[in-house]
């Protein structure tokens, strides 16, 4: 690119001087191109050295020409001073270039252009006209010619620079555009025109954004307005719908063009097609979503398997606990049945013998009465009579006559009671019997209470509030076990001595219920949900297995019933069992 193009307008009419001036213009154009295109520092420094060499021979020749021509001494001195300033400026720039070879100051280029304009086109031309007398040395006329020459050359240089920029922009696969300060597009490169489906002839302010996605046009307009009003660079992403390539994603940078006086001159835009990048992002996002979905599904599957495993473990624990409890109860049932059988036999002949003894005693009393009548018929001093009377007094026959019947009666009542306990124990021992049959709930409560009476009578007063529940279908032995567990727990919940309430009743026509309420310690709210878990117990180690309520809950569940708890710490607990009323 040339800052100045040498022409006859620049010639002064002195061949040697003109030739040297032409060389200076060539050096200036080469130096400007080297700086603009980023030549290697050594090449730039070589041009600066060539410029310094130029000053040596040109200024000597020019000053000799002035002296030989008899140039005005004042004008000569001023001219020579300008030469010295030029040498100082170029030498200083050379020193700067040596210290920092990466760049040459733009001031040097500006200085050289100003030197061409003010010195060669004015001072030198004025000097030559005065010495040769070939034209007018009128300062105003020379200034006008100077201005015309510079404008002509600078306009040419500008046009050349613009054409080179446009040629370069048209070769790039990027969206490059320029607007004026009215936001009218004054240049769009070939790639931009092809992408947007427009031509230089059809491009105008109203249609140059037609290809932008309607959903993004507001974003683009706002970015251009911000860059124009705030004079700040903007970077945006938007979509295009192009006739040639369909939908595209564009990354665009918008730069405000600002004159040296600070005025806004328009916008410069540079855009790149980032559709592949966006598609890669979409694919990556889809892949991430797919993998995330797979992970979620895998986690859900693992969670289901975990829950199933926990459920199986819980079932295994329940089955294990039920097997242990069933085994214990079966052993207890066998033991109870054996004990009941062994006790029942002696109780039978004890009861039978007591009845026989009662009859024998009555017979003996009759014999005694007959003996007394005989003794009364004999003389009082008869030795046999005296011995008989003495025997009556020593044995306290009258007291024995009154006490023996009571003793026999109490013994018979005890035997009867023992027989009832044995019968209840035999009924309760049938815990492994799973057949459903008619079950008298209140009789079952009484029988169970009779069995655990020894454990309860020292802990609580038992209060019965029966509603006269009629027999219904269930596995009675299992319900007896539930009653037993609830009664034992109620007694153990009482510290000193309290009360246990036994109630029965109906809930509509479909349900029958019974409940066991105690005045004991109560159960804290935070563990009420755990008391039916297998092996959970609030009792000290060695005092409870944690299976009683768990087994009771399972029995009631198997009967399609309900087991509910109401408890207040410090006041007691109430367990209510509701069972279907199958008649």
UniProtKB/TrEMBL annotation:
What are the residue boundaries of the PAC domain, all occurrences included? 234-286
Family matches, as SMART domains:
HATPase_c, HisKA, PAC, PAS
PROSITE patterns recorded for this chain?
A: HIS_KIN, PAC
Ordered alphabetically, the record's keywords are:
Iron, Kinase, Metal-binding, Phosphoprotein, Transferase
List the InterPro entries.
HATPase_C_sf, HATPase_dom, Hemerythrin-like, Hemerythrin-like_sf, Hemerythrin_metal-bd, His_kinase_dom, HisK_dim/P_dom, HisK_dim/P_sf
Q: What is its EC number?
A: 2.7.13.3
Which part of the chain is the Histidine kinase domain? 338-583
Pfam family of the protein (one):
PAS_3
Could you tell me which SUPFAM superfamilies the record lists for this protein? ATPase domain of HSP90 chaperone/DNA topoisomerase II/histidine kinase, Hemerythrin-like, Homodimeric domain of signal transducing histidine kinase, PYP-like sensor domain (PAS domain)
Q: Which reaction does it catalyse?
A: ATP + protein L-histidine = ADP + protein N-phospho-L-histidine
Q: Which GO terms describe its molecular function?
A: metal ion binding; phosphorelay sensor kinase activity
Lineage: superkingdom: Bacteria
Q: Member of which family?
A: Belongs to the hemerythrin family.
Note the NCBIfam families from the entry: bact_hemeryth, hemeryth_dom, sensory_box
Query: Know the name of this protein?
Result: histidine kinase
Native organism: Methylomonas lenta
């Amino acid at each position: 690119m040339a800052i100045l193009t040498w022409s006859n307008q620049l010639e002064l009419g002195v061949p040697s001087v003109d030739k040297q001036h032409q060389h200076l213009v060539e050096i200036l154009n080469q130096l400007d191109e080297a700086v603009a295109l980023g030549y290697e520092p050594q090449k730039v420094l070589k041009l600066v050295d060539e410029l310094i060499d130029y000053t040596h021979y040109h200024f000597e020749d020019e000053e000799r020409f002035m002296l030989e021509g008899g140039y005005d001494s004042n004008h000569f001195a001023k001219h020579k001073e300008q030469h010295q300033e030029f040498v100082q400026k170029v030498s200083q720039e050379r020193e700067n270039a040596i210290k920092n070879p990466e760049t040459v100051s733009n001031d040097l280029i500006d200085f050289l252009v100003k030197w061409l304009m003010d010195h060669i086109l004015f001072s030198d031309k004025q000097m030559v006209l005065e010495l040769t007398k070939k034209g007018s040395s009128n300062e105003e006329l020379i200034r006008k010619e100077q201005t015309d020459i510079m404008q002509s050359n600078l306009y040419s240089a500008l046009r050349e620079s613009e054409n080179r920029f446009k040629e370069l922009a048209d070769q790039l696969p990027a969206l490059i555009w320029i607007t004026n300060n009215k936001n009218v597009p004054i240049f769009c490169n070939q790639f931009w025109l092809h992408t947007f489906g427009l031509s230089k002839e059809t491009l105008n302010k109203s249609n140059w954004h037609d290809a932008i996605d309607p959903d993004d046009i507001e974003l683009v307009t706002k970015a251009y307005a911000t860059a124009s009003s705030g004079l700040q660079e903007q970077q945006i992403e938007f979509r295009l719908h192009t006739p040639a390539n369909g939908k595209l994603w564009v990354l665009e940078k918008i730069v405000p063009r600002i004159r040296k006086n600070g005025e806004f001159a328009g916008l410069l835009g540079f855009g790149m097609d980032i559709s592949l990048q966006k598609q890669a992002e979409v694919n990556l996002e889809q892949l991430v979503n797919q993998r995330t979905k797979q992970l979620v599904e895998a986690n859900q599957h693992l969670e289901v398997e975990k829950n199933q495993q926990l459920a199986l473990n819980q079932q295994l624990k329940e089955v294990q606990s039920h097997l242990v409890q069933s085994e214990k109860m079966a052993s207890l049932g066998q033991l109870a049945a054996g004990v009941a059988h062994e006790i029942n036999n002696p109780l039978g002949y004890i009861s039978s013998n007591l009845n026989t003894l009662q009859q024998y005693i009555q017979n003996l009393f009759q014999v005694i009465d007959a003996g007394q009548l005989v003794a009364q018929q004999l003389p009082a001093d008869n030795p046999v009579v005296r011995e008989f009377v003495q025997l009556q007094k020593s044995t306290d026959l009258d007291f024995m006559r009154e006490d023996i019947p009571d003793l026999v009666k109490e013994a018979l009542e005890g035997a009867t009671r023992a027989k009832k306990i044995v019968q209840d124990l035999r009924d309760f021992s049938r815990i492994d019997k799973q057949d459903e049959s008619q079950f008298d709930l209140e009789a079952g409560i009484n029988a169970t209470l009779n069995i655990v009476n020894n454990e309860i009578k020292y802990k609580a007063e038992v209060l019965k509030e029966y509603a006269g529940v009629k027999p219904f279908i269930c596995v009675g032995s299992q319900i007896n076990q539930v009653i037993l567990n609830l009664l034992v727990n109620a007694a153990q919940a009482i510290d000193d001595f309290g009360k246990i309430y036994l109630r029965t009743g109906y809930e509509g026509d479909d349900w029958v219920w019974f409940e066991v309420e105690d005045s004991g310690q109560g159960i804290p709210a935070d563990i009420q949900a755990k008391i039916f878990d297998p092996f959970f117990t609030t009792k000290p180690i060695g005092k409870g297995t944690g299976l009683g309520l768990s087994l009771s809950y399972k029995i009631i569940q198997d009967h399609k019933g309900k087991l509910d708890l109401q408890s207040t710490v410090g006041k007691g607990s109430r367990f209510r069992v509701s069972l279907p009323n199958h008649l």
